[in-house]
C-alpha cells in the first residue's frame, strides 16, 4: 500500500513536469529538469558554505586552528609542566613494589650500579697512617655529586658557612697549633733558632687558607652546577643572628646569565623552615642530606660548613644509583619544602603521596649477594607522614634487637638538652630503660 503523502507528491511532480517540462511533441523534457535539479544542489551548497564562513567570522576559534592549537598545547605541557611541578621528582624512574623489594638494580656491588659507601671527615689536626683511612672524604663525595649532577640537586641543611665570613675568620684548631709553636719554638736572637712572629703568622695564613679552600671550592661548584642548568633547591633552618645563612642567600639573590636557567630565579631556590613558629617556640631543622638527579643520596652529620670538611669529625653515607631510596628520602624533603612557605602550618594529616611503606617493621629490601634492608627515619613526629618511623623509635628498635654489642658515637649524651633557653630542659627519653 502506498502512503497518502507519497501519492500526492507523485501527482504533484507529474503535473509539474507535464506543465513546465514538455517538448513540442508533448513528451517530457527530462534534460532541462535534471539540469535545474543540479543547479539547485550547487546553489544550496554555496549557500551553506557562505553561511558557515559568516558564522566562523564571529567565532573565537577557527576550525582550521584547532589542530594547531592542540599541537601547541601539547608542546607547552612538555616544555613548561616540569617547571610548575612543585615536587620536581622523577617518579617515573622509581622502581619498587609494596612488598618491599626494590626492582631498580640497587645491588651492593661496585661499578656503575648501586653502591653504598661510608663518608668521613677526619679533622686536620689528627694524623693517621694512610692505610688506616678506608672511608671516602666528605669533600670528595660532595665534589663528585656536584660535578655529576645533570638535572637537580635538593639539599636539606641546618646552616651554611662554606665561605668563612670575616667575622669568623679564624679556626680554634689552627690557633692552638700557632700558640703551641710560639710556646715551644720561640725565636732566639742569640742562636737564631726557632720561629719568629712573622714566620708563625705566615704559617697560620697558609694553613688557614688550605683549610678553607675545600669549603670555597664546594661553594663554587654549586654555582657551576647551576650554570649548567641544574635546578638547585635548598630547605634550611630559619636564618638567625648566629647562623645568617649568607651562602644560601647569595645563591638565591644572584642570577645566572646562562640561557639554560631562563626560568629559574637565582642559582638556587631557598626556603626557610621556621621551626620555633611550627613547634611552639622550640626546635631547629638539624637535617643534613642531599638528593641528586632523583637517584644519588648523601645522608650525614656534616653541615654545609667548611669546618665540616676539614676540622670537625663527621660521618655519613653516600648511596649511588638507587631511585628507591632517593624517592623515599625525597618525601621527607617535600615536607620541609612545604613547611618552608611563609605562614605554613603542620597539617592534621599529611597527603597520601608523602606516606611511606618502609619502616623498621617493613624495610625496603635491597637485592645483593645477601639480602640487605633499609628504612629512613625522621623527627619530629609532627613532620612524619603515615608509615614513617620516628628517630627515637628507630634507635630504640635497633638497640632492642642487638645480639652482641652496641657501639655509640654521639656529640652529647645526657638526659637533658643544653640548647634550650628555658629552664625546662629535662629530657624524658625513650632511651632511659635501655
TrEMBL record:
It holds the Pfam family PLDc. One of its GO terms (molecular function) is catalytic activity. PROSITE patterns: PLD. Residues 281-308 form the PLD phosphodiesterase domain. CDD domains: PLDc_vPLD3_4_5_like_1. InterPro entries: Diverse_PLD-related, PLDc_3, PLipase_D/transphosphatidylase. Transmembrane segments: none annotated. Gene3D superfamilies: Endonuclease Chain A. PANTHER family: GM01519P-RELATED, PHOSPHOLIPASE D - RELATED. Belongs to the phospholipase D family. This is PLD phosphodiesterase domain-containing protein.
